[in-house]
Amino acid sequence: MENTANAHNHALIHDPSTYLIEKEPYYVPVNNEITLFEAAYDNHLPLLLKGPTGCGKTRFMEYMAWRLRRPMITVSCHDDLTTSDLVGRYLVKNGETVWVDGPLTRAVRSGGICYLDEIVEARKDTMVVIHPLADDRRIMPIEKLGQLLEAPDSFCLAISYNPGYQSVLKELKQSTRQRFVAIEFDYPKPALEREIIMHETGLAPAVTDKLLKLAEMTRNLKDNGLEEGASTRLLVHAGKLISKGVEPRAACQGAIALALTDDRDMIAAINELIGALF
Amino acid sequence: MKATEQPYAYATLLERLEELYEVEFTWLKVEQLVQGLVNLDRNTQDFILGWAERLLTTNVYISHEFIIRVVEALDRLERRVIEAWAVHAADTFDQQGLRPALAVIQQVDSFLESAHAHAEGVAFDEVESILSTFVCGLSGRWLKLAQGESVYTDSETLYLPNITAKLVKSKDNFLLCKAQVAFMWAQTRFGSFRVDFATAFADYPDREQALAAFHALDTLRLEAYMERELPGLWRDMQRIERLRLDEMREEGVHGGTPLQAAWETCRGVLHTPSATVEDVLALVPQVLGLPIPQPVYQTRLNPEAVTACMLARMEREKILLRVKLAELVKEHKEETPPDLPLSGEVQEKKEVAPPEFEMREVQEGQGMELVLDDKPIAPPEDVKQLLTSIMLDWGDVPPEFLVPAGDGEYDPSLYQKEEKDIEDVWKGIYHEEGAFLYREWDFARQHYRKNWCVLRELELPPGDPAYVDKVLDKYQGMIKHLRRTFEAMRDENRLLKRQSQGDDVDIDALVEALADSRDGSEMSDKLFQHMHRADRSMAVMFMVDMSGSTKGWINDAEREALVMLCEVLEKLGDSYAIYGFSGIGRKRCEIYRIKAFDDLYNSATKARIAGIVPKDYTRLGVAIRHLTEKLNTVEAKTRLLITLSDGKPEDYFDIYNTQYGIEDTRQALFEARRTGIHPFCITIDQRGKDYLPHMYGHANWVEIDDVKKLPLKVADIYRRLTS
């Protein structure tokens, strides 16, 4: 093991404090998700966040990381993500091989939070690496170093996915999902969504209400040509553009209609809805 | 075409037209036509003769009449309009016959009058998709759009005419359509139909006059809603109303005079947010006999259609909601654990209270929620829609609607919309009802014949359930071989080491390379490893010829081949579907589902394969168009449409047996290719090489003499597309 220890002495170490969130992120609880998260965290249970895109899952994670004062490392999963991308790899430096920790290893070593966003986008063979961390063993073997990391009590693993985009090819395996405590998210209730948009964009109530009405209209189109309606995130984007002086119709067309779909007829129909409101 | 080319001489034109109209048999006079054409330039002569030839394939008399009239109207008509006029005549012939089509050609002036409608009007087909989505986005009941004689709604369907051309410019006509759709939506959304039309106007001496007054007052109320709910659209509505008034003034038509004081007073009352249809009814006497305002976006009120539709819906939705609530109670019981008895207590048999549903307001202005035994529950989407629809009709949900259905109230005929038996509809006079209508390419006309083919999807009666097992026994060895062939195409994830590019360093290769460089050898550049990932994404649609000519060994072979294909495709894991096609004539095209993409390869599917029997004829184009639509709904990188056929397109004593059928099939395949589909044909017709390359392209068809080779050919096609 001396070699590996030596190797690790040469490793490129990342300072965990760079992942600390200093400023309180703006987050309004929708349900009892904070209590649930804290209870799971105290019991060293990993978490699964389910919900449509743009409904506040990532913001919630940032808020919890700030609240628990733990560094948070986020990985946006994709289908080219390899196990090495998560665990770490050797690199060559001045003719020597140097080990570099991957984000998951960094989070384990620093006792922080590792947040794997859109987990179903990752390949199934990559995802098995989290299994021993996500049950009561809470360990992480690093084969290339011959190490077995034990996760400290403060380490937390959280994953997120959107059940709405599930297909046969992209669903979470039972062996993965049954390790997690699940928290379901949805778009906030209108009054809360109104509060969020006004806070994030500084828009006047009247314009905010029109944005909310547009959101409701696009959400009516779910499964009628649209996979999802406009998320809170998209409304905030449109609101920010309007706050900066962009004409409301143009802002909504760019931030909402074109962001939601590429189908020409659907874009035209959403533009008509925008035109009916603004 | 060179500009300097000489016009055709009299003799040339005479000879050509005599040949064209076969004057020896038809007795048509062509001298007058030649007189008209001879003084025109060559370019115009070619244009007219070209269209005359195209129309000749539709009808000789229409073509003959066309030349006479077009020469007369040449100064007044642009070529674009002449083309539209000729196509309109041909379409009229397709739909209504010779006399109306000749009338279109002869009455060129009335066509010119309606040319504005054609040029600046918006057609229903053009706006249907966008406006259907638009109205779906507005809250409330799901509403359909359909074509009708006038603009009205029955509270479920919004009817628009074929062409809307009330205003001068097409963009304004589109706005008008949108405003009318929104107006009809507002009628259903804001309670315009919560009126008993049978009794509400019974005391008025002139019922029609009272209805018109009611409708005009309700329009004022709805305008206020529009202003509040859809301010952008309301601005557009005001603009097109002003446009219409300006046009009327230009035409000298009296209109747009300010409303009388009584109307203004009513407007003040009806513009309050709390105004209801009851307030509208109460104001009717105040405006009776006064001139009635009719804004351009106001649609027709059709109380009879509304009443009939609402009565049927209210009864249906009442029982349907009660059935759905009973299902909710059942689900709720399964999810909720029963209360455990307290220790030491003797558990008495408790009287179980019946479940109690109610609708409760969430918060001020936050809508209603469904409550079961004092606890809010989240109903599924279809129940939400149902509650919305009921509240639109009644204003709220009547308590008797919230009683879960008991045993014996589950009769689907009570709450399902009556659907006619397909076989009965096929036999009847209105046999196009509910069928798919497809266009067909007329190569001679160089245009589509609209809504030309009537197609239905029919169920195939199952065949011998043991058939598939017999085939499997018979071809055990063959199937093993095929499985190996297809499995060889199956891609697996595998780690490729020592690559020159990759997503990770191959540490073994790197150590070797470093050692090489230390002792002076050349360092290899293959230092990476790369995960080769299987990324198959195929969907294949088999289109099986079920024409009468497949009777006998071909039909047997088709079914056996399909069994073998299913066995191996299941191994491969690609999605696949099988449909049979047949029919007699353009009005009776049939598609048989054998296996849809979502169907499992189970005993029911196997029985349907066994049930494939020879039927009638092979009208290929319509089948290709229908199955292309189906194939395009499947998510896959590669889509294959494989036709299994024993011959060329043909139909019962029909033009389809000629070059027309081949050209239509070719056009349907073009349409499929444009959507990204790869069409192939596997044929048993030895004369296939005469026409298949023209239809499918040289590389996309194959002829086989033994149908046992068919699955192997499919494997070849697969390999070609995926390697």
TrEMBL record, chain B:
Residues 472-499 form a coiled coil. Residues 539-721 form the VWFA domain. PROSITE patterns: VWFA. SUPFAM superfamilies: vWA-like. PANTHER family: NORD PROTEIN. CDD domains: vWA_norD_type. InterPro entries: NorD/CobT, VWF_A, vWFA_dom_sf. The keyword Translocase does not apply. This is Nitric oxide reductase activation protein. It comes from Thiothrix winogradskyi. Keywords: Coiled coil. Signal peptide: none annotated.
